[in-house]
Amino acid sequence: MVLLLYRPSNLQRMLLIIELATLVNHVGCLLMMQATTPETALVAVKFSYIGKPYILLAIFLFLLNFYRVHMPIVVKYVLCIFHVCISLLVLTCEHHTLFYNSMEFVDEGYYPHLVFGHGPFYIANTILIFFYFLAGLVLSIVKYKKMRTKNEQRCAFYLDVIILVGALGLLTYFTGITGGYDTTLPAYVIGNILLQICMIKYNMLDALEVAKDIVVDEIAQGILVLAPDEKPIYEN
Fold this sequence. Notes:
Blueprint: H1 10-34, H2 38-48, H3 52-66, H4 73-91, E1 100-106, E2 113-118, H5 120-144, H6 150-175, H7 184-200, H8 207-218, E3 224-226, E4 232-235
Antiparallel strand pairs: 1-2, 3-4
């Protein structure tokens, strides 16, 4: 609701995707915790993957946008298509072994849950997730010193914390010590709270900056920005 009050911008769109994808993922995980049969548990897993694959993708694209880092549009499309494929593979997972190569419903841990074997696309997706975390952290550290204002520096600091908390939540889950509980859930909650702080307290979606971006993107003339080595870093 807060986001909808801002004038549309790339940052706003990415944040909306993050919020909506997180909401769907959390509803799916809530359904998993309440599932008492393999069938209902599988439906819950499928529901969560309508949103889950797009959380980190949107965060990564948000970071690129916030730090004004250019990524070829083809690469963005490839990443989006890959994550759509992940959703489709999970939605049809009982018919193949590309994402999950086995399923077992166990009545142990914090609540009854499905335990999955990892297929090739699951492994590829996991590698990509850790790439997002690593690339985002490196990008935030490199760009932090170039931030022009204190507010931007504070936002960059919060983004670093969001990345680290997310990586910690994922690593904890992969250890298997959580009894089936997905520790990325509290990590995403913390990340969303920190994003809200950046938006409201530190004006991440500052009207002036957004207006500049809109003017540059919508002006009739073409604008091309080159780095010192003459590589294009932005075009409207």
